[in-house]
Amino acid sequence: MSVPVAVTINQPLFAANTVKWNRRIEPVRYREAKAQFLSSTEYVAMSAINYFFNLVLADENLNIARQNLANDEKLYEVALAKRAMGTISENDLLQLRLNVLNSRSALTDAETARTASHFQLTSFLGIDDPGEEITPVVPERLPHIDLNYAQVLEKALANNSFAYNQRRRQLQADYDVAQARGNQRSVSVYAQIGLTGVGDRPADAYSPLRDNQIVEIGLSIPLLDWGKRRGKVKVAESNRRVVENTLRKEATDFRQNLFVLVERFNNQQRQVETAAMADTIADRRYRTNVETFMIGRISTLDLNDSQTARDNQHTQYYNALFSFWYYYYQIRSLALWDFISDSPIDADFDRIIHNSLQ
Question: Measuring CA to CA, which of 112, 141, 304, 313 is 20 to 30 A from 53?
Answer without folding.
Answer: 304
